[in-house]
């Protein structure tokens, strides 16, 4: 078997499905490995983080094969792989992690110390994350397979739930991590900034964790309508009504117990002219305003160290005008960084299998072909309330 195709980044605003190399059992530096597997990709998703690259807002190199949200079937394995078998259906955490370093042993798999020579943390098909080939393709190699892969039990039942289980590789654990680090618990009042797929996953996670009220805020009316339709309260940030006042109208007070930033560095605010302008610190500053004293703020939204398209020189280096003094005065706790997917994915898999969370409906999963990837990127960038999931081998129909 030697053929393969994948979604390739060709420069700002452009992706294309091209023939790419069939995966080899080697790391990005060309070293042969025996701890990996080759997967036939069953599903692979378009993520908002991919969009940051495609918009030209990172230093991603032309020719990068995209995709870090992967579910697949093991079709080849190295001789050091003991727990995974040919034919296993598996979820792939977007974090590439060795399982051996201090970070991995402490469950901080998002900042593995060995898989990326440039910095802590590795990921498939992502800028500055170790040059691991992405999984928006027909086939992909996963290293340290025994450690990284989550086997999905009962293949037939898993395929029946594949639209939900495809969210295990990133979006659902990321939303859940945001809710957990924000301190969501039974009876909490929660504000979620952003009604995109991660924001909706965070809202669903907050509900799973027992929140009494979950409010989702955005400027996109279509996404807000979807959030309302699946059972969440909303705050329309396109209106000339302060967020605190909208929260007060719902809760009787202008604050929530905790908040989650699911927007990140491409946040937009309103200028004096009433027009939306990019304002990368606006979400974090607004969350400090509406979170009660001693409350927590989870920040799974992406912030980068290099942003060539930023609004000013400081933001190009990730330096934002954050009102940190306000957060200090209110004794807020902040939690940032990549989600350690393996910390949560097994429990979330069980929640899906036992119908405790209908994540595909909540994030708006829409299945498309690999060839339709460019169209999916275009529609997602336009702000539709959908999570595009690619089916490279047309397996969803059989399920």
- Our estimate of the beta-strand percent is 15-25%
Radius of gyration: 20 Å
Amino- and carboxy-terminal Cα gap? 25 Å
Name of the top-level CATH class of the largest domain? Alpha Beta
Q: Please count the beta strands (DSSP E, at least 2 residues each).
A: 19
Q: Describe the biggest sheet?
A: 7 strands, mixed
Domain module count: 2
**Averaging pLDDT over every residue, what do you get?**
95
Q: State the helical fraction.
A: 25-40%
GO molecular function: formaldehyde dehydrogenase (NAD+) activity
Pfam family, one: AlaDh_PNT_C
Enzyme class: oxidoreductase
Cofactor: Zn(2+)
What key attributes describe this structure?
metal-binding; 399 residues; 2 domains; single chain; Quinone Oxidoreductase, Chain A, domain 1; EC 1.2.1.46; 15 helices; alpha/beta; GroES-like_sf; six-stranded parallel beta sheet
Briefly summarize what is shown.
Helices cover 27% and strands 23% of the residues. With 399 residues, the chain is of the alpha/beta class. Helix 6 (171-181) crosses helix 7 (197-208).
């Amino acid at each position: 078997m030697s053929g393969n195709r994948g979604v390739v980044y060709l420069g700002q605003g452009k992706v294309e499905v091209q023939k790419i190399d069939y995966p080899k059992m080697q790391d990005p530096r060309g070293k042969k490995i025996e701890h990996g597997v080759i997967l036939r990709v069953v599903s692979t998703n378009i993520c908002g983080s991919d969009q940051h690259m495609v918009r030209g807002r990172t230093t991603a190199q032309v020719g990068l094969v995209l995709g870090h949200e992967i579910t697949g079937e093991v079709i080849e394995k190295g001789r050091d792989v003991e727990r995974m078998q040919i034919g296993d259906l598996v979820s792939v955490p977007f974090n590439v992690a060795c399982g051996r370093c201090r970070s991995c042993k402490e469950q901080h798999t998002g900042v593995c110390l060995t898989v990326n020579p440039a910095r802590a943390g590795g990921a498939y098909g992502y800028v500055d994350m170790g040059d691991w080939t992405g999984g928006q393709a027909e086939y992909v190699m996963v290293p340290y397979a025994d450690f990284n892969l989550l086997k999905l039990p009962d293949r037939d039942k898993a395929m029946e739930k594949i639209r939900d289980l495809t969210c295990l590789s990133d979006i659902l654990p990321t939303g859940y991590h945001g809710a957990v680090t924000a301190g969501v618990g039974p009876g909490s009042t929660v504000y979620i900034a952003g009604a995109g797929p991660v924001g909706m996953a965070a809202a669903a996670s907050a509900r799973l964790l027992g929140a009494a009220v979950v409010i989702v805020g955005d400027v996109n009316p279509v996404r807000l309508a979807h959030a309302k339709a699946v059972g969440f309260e909303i705050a329309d940030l396109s209106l000339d009504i302060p967020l605190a006042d909208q929260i007060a109208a719902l809760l009787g007070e202008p604050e929530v117990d905790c908040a989650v930033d699911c927007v990140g560095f491409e946040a937009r605010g309103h200028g004096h002219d009433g027009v939306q302008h990019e304002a990368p610190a606006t979400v974090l500053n607004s969350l400090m305003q509406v979170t009660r004293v001693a409350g927590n703020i989870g920040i799974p939204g992406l912030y980068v160290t290099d942003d060539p398209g930023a609004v000013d020189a400081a933001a190009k280096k990730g330096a934002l005008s954050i009102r940190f003094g306000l957060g200090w005065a209110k004794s807020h706790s902040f939690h940032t960084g990549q989600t350690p997917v393996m910390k949560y994915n097994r429990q979330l898999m069980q929640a899906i299998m036992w119908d405790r969370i209908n994540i595909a409906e909540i994030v708006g999963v829409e299945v498309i072909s690999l060839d339709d990837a460019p169209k999916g990127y275009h529609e997602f960038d336009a702000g539709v309330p959908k999570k595009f999931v690619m089916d490279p081998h047309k397996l969803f129909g059989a399920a």
